[in-house]
Design goal:
Secre_tail; disordered N terminus; single chain; mainly beta; PhoX; 37 strands; nine-stranded antiparallel beta sheet; 46% strand; signal; 6-blade_b-propeller_TolB-like
């Protein structure tokens, strides 16, 4: 038996009646390293490729470049049937094809444990003067999607209607595949994302520019974002502030949101590129500032601004800090760095943070974290040249949807997804991620044929504890405990049959790995 570093990314919990993975946030951090051609996630999880740039859409056209916000919109609150709204952040011609939004009708097949697409369509925005640079957005509580234009361009292209061509929030209906409208009252600037309060009226958003500003929009009526009051934040980034009302009743005022916010007018607090804004389960508002490498959070004493509210703000994560990352064998101090971008909360109140520069980590800030008592993990590392974008969950929080944007076209990852597809990550790709037990049939407590290469039996392993492995030439066998500790490591010389006696191991769940690439679950009774 060799002594080697244990594998760090298998983590499951053994219940009274067997193996129970509690939720998607049950994982051991991956080792913090520089990006490679592969998409690195814990072995306890799996991914499935849903689409990639260049795929043919069922309703005509191709899957567009630079996939960004990947919003799952449930049908009747379902976690198995819904619409997947995917932004394209491409720029207008002649530099790109213009961006837009594609909607996929998707459903989960409980037999194959895979997601499937029944319809895919590129939406038509000509009725609102087209769209481009569609970055992030949000899913509304009333079943629509807000897609955000991350650029502000004057009224240059037809139709000449007095409104700036780009820099707006646009609402779409994924069920009907129609555009509800551009919401000019929400202001004009480089929109990255919005988040909507449960009152269906209050919206928090930020300008992804430097100078950038933090805004609050209060709609006149619930579920109608076409009119309302627009405010900008002024105050301390760690301390007290308030909202200042902007002029916002006509085209000129709505086109000049940034100018009104700036030093020559209201002199609002400057942030260096506000990326994403999310309301946490604690009711506080969290927002990522990429250029400052900080996620701030604040409380708002009156979300409807019926009286002058008090905003109390603080640094939540980042801000020049480093965090100890435990990959199961080594604890490494890792700088948060810059580039914190898309945010989303899971069902346990953990904040997922996608990083679009540096090492392109997918961070998970655990519920209860503070700068004084930090609790931060790294879930994944996006491939070379890319950034991880978009992120939403199904209502039951078992499935995470996201995209890999603009990876290096020289990547040859040769990764196999949960459905058996080979994925190279050499083009923009949209994915769904889940615990391995919830996606595909890669792990099973039944006798397992390793994709036709190997037979392992009996499984579960009974009192004799004699395990037999047969198949293609066997060069190495490793066994890991349920916590990811390597407990066995044997080398062989192209053997076709191996018999192992595992009497020295306690009853429980283990993971068997053959030739460094094929992993299956093993139950010792």
């Amino acid at each position: 038996m060799k002594t080697k570093l244990p594998l760090k990314t298998l983590i499951f919990f053994l219940g009274v009646n067997g193996l129970y993975a509690q939720s998607i946030d049950d994982f051991t951090s991956v080792t913090p390293v520089a990006p490679s051609a592969q998409f690195v996630i814990p072995l306890s999880h799996a991914f499935q490729k849903l689409a990639e740039v260049g795929d043919v859409l069922t309703e005509g056209g191709l899957f567009k470049p630079k996939p960004d916000f990947t919003g799952y919109v449930p049908i009747a609150s379902s976690s198995a049937n819904g619409y997947l709204s995917i932004n394209s952040e491409d720029v207008p011609p002649p530099f790109g094809i213009g961006g837009g939004v594609m909607v996929f009708d998707i459903n989960y097949n409980s037999t194959t444990k895979l997601w499937q697409t029944t319809k895919s369509q590129d939406l038509d925005f000509t009725a609102v003067g087209n769209t481009a640079a569609n970055c992030s957005g949000t899913v509304t509580s009333w079943g629509t999607v807000i897609t955000c234009e991350e650029a502000s361009v004057p009224d240059t292209f037809p139709p000449i209607d007095g409104y700036n061509d780009l820099g707006w929030n646009i609402e779409i209906n994924p069920a009907t595949k129609t555009v509800v409208g551009k919401h000019y009252a929400m202001g004009n600037f480089a929109h990255e994302n919005v988040t909507i309060h449960t009152n269906a009226r209050t919206v928090y958003q930020g300008a992804d520019s430097n100078p950038g500003y933090l805004y609050k929009f209060v709609a006149d009526a619930a579920q109608d974002l076409s009119s309302g009051k627009l405010y900008v934040f002024k105050g301390l980034k760690n301390g007290i502030g308030s909202w200042i009302l902007l002029d916002n009743s006509n085209q000129t005022e709505q086109n000049s949101t940034l100018t009104q916010s700036g030093p020559s007018d209201h002199d609002a607090t400057i942030f260096n590129g506000i990326e994403d804004v999310e309301i946490g389960p604690d009711g506080m508002v969290y927002f990522a500032v990429k250029g400052e490498g900080t996620v701030y959070r604040f409380s708002d004493s009156d979300v409807l601004e019926t009286s002058a509210s008090t905003v109390t703000m603080e640094t939540y994560v980042g801000g020049g800090a480093s965090y100890n990352i435990n990959d199961g064998s080594t604890i490494t101090s890792v700088a948060w760095g810059n580039g914190n971008d898309n945010l989303a909360f899971d069902g346990d109140g953990n904040l997922w943070v996608l990083q679009d520069s540096g090492n392109n980590y997918i961070w998970v800030v655990k519920n209860g974290h503070s700068q004084a008592i930090p609790d931060v993990e790294i879930f994944g590392i996006a491939p070379i040249g890319s950034e991880p974008t978009g992120i939403t969950f199904t209502p039951d929080y078992k499935y995470l949807f996201m995209s890999i944007q603009h990876p290096a076209d020289t990547n040859i990852a040769n990764q196999t997804d949960a459905g058996g597809q080979t994925v190279n990550f050499d083009k923009g790709t949209t994915l769904v991620i889940a615990l391995s037990e919830n996606l595909g049939n890669s792990l099973s407590v039944e006798n397992k044929n390793f994709d036709g290469d190997f037979m392992v039996f009996p499984n579960p392993l009974g009192a004799s504890r004699n395990l037999i492995i047969k198949g293609k030439p066997i060069n190495n066998i490793k066994l890991y405990s349920v916590l990811g500790k390597m407990v066995l490591d044997y080398d062989y010389n192209k053997t076709h049959t191996v018999e192992l006696n595992l009497k020295q191991f306690n009853s429980g769940i283990y993971f068997l790995k053959i030739n460094e690439k094929t992993t299956s679950k093993l139950v010792i009774q």
